[in-house]
Structure formats: structure tokens, C-alpha cells
Design a protein that fits this description.
The chain is built from 2 helices and no strands. With 48 residues, it is mainly α. The two termini are 18 Å apart.
């Protein structure tokens, strides 16, 4: 498995933490799901 590091604002991080807490999901699990759902019309389809 690969690792990605990127910067977020304090506000963005708190928003992510709160969302994950409400949904009872880990941050990495949620972010992987969002990446799999990405689609670029005519280029990429969401990953199944």
C-alpha cells in the first residue's frame, strides 16, 4: 500500500475529524472511498 501526504487547514482537519467521528469511520477509510468514487468524464470511471 502506498502513502500520500498533503496539507490541510486546521479547519479542514477538524471538519474531517468530526465527520469521521459522527460516521464512526477512520479518516483513511473515508479518503480511500472518496478517491474510488472520483470520475473524470470521458477519461476515468469510478473504481469498483
Amino acid at each position: 500500500m502506498n502513502q500520500i501526504n498533503f496539507r490541510v487547514t486546521g479547519e479542514e482537519l477538524e471538519h474531517l475529524k468530526k465527520y469521521c467521528n459522527i460516521k464512526k469511520r477512520q479518516q483513511s477509510e473515508l479518503l480511500r472511498e472518496l478517491i474510488r468514487k472520483l470520475s473524470i468524464s470521458g477519461v476515468l470511471n469510478p473504481i469498483d
